[in-house]
Design goal:
Elements: H1 8-13, E1 19-24, H2 33-39, E2 49-52, H3 55-65, E3 67-69, E4 75-77, E5 84-86, H4 91-101, H5 106-116, E6 122-124
Antiparallel strand pairs: 1-2, 1-6, 3-4, 5-6
């Protein structure tokens, strides 16, 4: 279900692939959410987690991720075609639901999310 890349070259070799990118939010926790979401994000990060396509990921994980926040500070679900922010305090719940439901790739997701606790949550792009 998920792909990680070891090098920037491997990542760029897949640059034309349609993916959903799960990206660590590296903005300071003191920065207002609305502020960094309105700035956009740098796509194709080497430490991101990638799910090929969008529909299989959404179908398998919509009940695990629940809702995130968009740039307008409104709650949106995983299927909404926009950048979604998940704060650090949502990570534990996502991990617990993934362990319970065990969708394809959940172990890789959990390992990636655990590292996300060092950042200001994560984005789904």
């Amino acid at each position: 279900m998920f792909i990680k890349f070891d090098t920037k070259e491997d990542l760029m070799a897949h640059g034309n692939m349609r993916v959903t990118e799960l990206q660590y939010c590296k903005f300071a926790r003191s920065m207002p959410v609305k502020s960094f979401l309105s700035k956009g994000c740098q796509l194709w990060q080497i430490d991101s987690l990638y799910a090929p396509g969008d529909q299989p990921f959404v179908e398998l994980y919509k009940d695990i991720f629940m809702s995130g926040v968009n740039a307008g500070m409104k709650e949106v679900n995983l299927a909404d075609k926009m950048i979604k922010y998940y704060s650090p305090d949502k990570i534990e719940g996502i991990i617990n639901r993934a362990k319970l439901l065990k969708p394809d790739g959940y172990e890789m997701l959990i390992d990636w999310l655990k590292e996300g606790t060092y950042y200001n949550g994560f984005l789904v792009i």
